[in-house]
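$ fold --in a.seq
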Amino acid sequence: MTKRGDSIFIEDLQITCVIGVADWERRTRQKIVVSVELRTDTRAAGGADSLEATIDYASACEGITQIAVEGQFKLIETLAEEIAKWLLQTFAASAVAVEVKKPRALSEAASAGVRIERSNDNNE
């Protein structure tokens, strides 16, 4: 995200799920790695030292995992869009960045993936 400000992030959340287009990918679970950044003002939470005043990243991880496991998406792009939409609807974030990687998707690379940025103002 290009704008400066506060954010809460989760890096390299490992999830095992069905994802992919090929027949073998539809029959077996694969590991994906998800990272998210949620743009939010953390001053109230920092001042109150209260979980209720911030984004609960444990809840975010649970929701992201549920979306990936239950969705059984063909494309990581679709998974990234669904995660971004859910994060923006669920938490007090003005914008989110979502990265989804498939380790060993290509024999020549450590991983292949997608990174998207979405906001609540619909201008990004």
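$ fold --in b.seq
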Amino acid sequence: MSNVLTFVYAFMFIQIFMVAINDVKYRKISNQWMILNMTLFVALLFIAPEHYQLTTETFFYSLTFLLVGFVGFFLKIMGPGDSKYLFSLFLVTPLVWHNSFFSVLLYSTCIIGGFSILTQLAQNYEKIADYAKVGYSKGIRECMGSKFPYAPVILMSWAWMGHHLYF
């Protein structure tokens, strides 16, 4: 693994850790992280051109997360900060890691999201059943709770990917 990739991995791990803490504490991801990541991406285009290029492949996941985030925000399932942060995070993620990171992020989301849904169902089973009988969908949505902070899932995914890359 090159020194640049090791630096990027460590720097981003620390950054995602800080973002996760703020996301849990304040339920918000600052746009400053996106600006920092986009600035870092531009610098990495010159510092490590073997890992960072201006190609459609480079922007595939970033733009996908913006689109999914827009739809998720419209459906009130995802906050806008999550998708903007993922957009910028995939720019800084070396292209050779994109597929691995996306796969791990998808698995982590399914595990944490599934656990969250099952927990809410178990805690509110009787209410949900009663609301379902009378067709009160708003009550069912309220029983399922609000969105969970997503940055800790990103952190878990980054750590999992790093474990596979370095160990």
